[in-house]
Design brief:
Rossmann fold; alpha/beta; 128 residues
Length: 128
Amino acid sequence: MSLDLSISVLVVDDYKTMIRIIKNLLKQIGFTDVDDASDGTAALAKLQEKSYGLVISDWNMEPMTGYELLQKVRGDENLKHIPFIMVTAEAKSENVVAAKEAGVSNYIVKPFNAQTLKGKIETVFQPA
């Protein structure tokens, strides 16, 4: 299965270094249209302005967490179809369960490399 590398990807993290790392990994995979937002509120504004094919968001952010962002995206008729990958530093099963219940497409635990990220993205885009 080949990934559509032309889709727009939105990376959401309040930690600039992490944004840079994820953007670099996405470039290694071959994505060219990658935007970023430093928190959930900024991410929502961008999602309403532009059509994104994928959101990769950190779980732990202030003031709006990745989980709250996910809930808002899934609750919005215009956005709820967008694949959403949650990035988390700790693989707490209750977080994973909560994210799945909220409609997360996939999740990834830090630290990770381009291969892992690519695998997670491919899983999201596999036909059900």
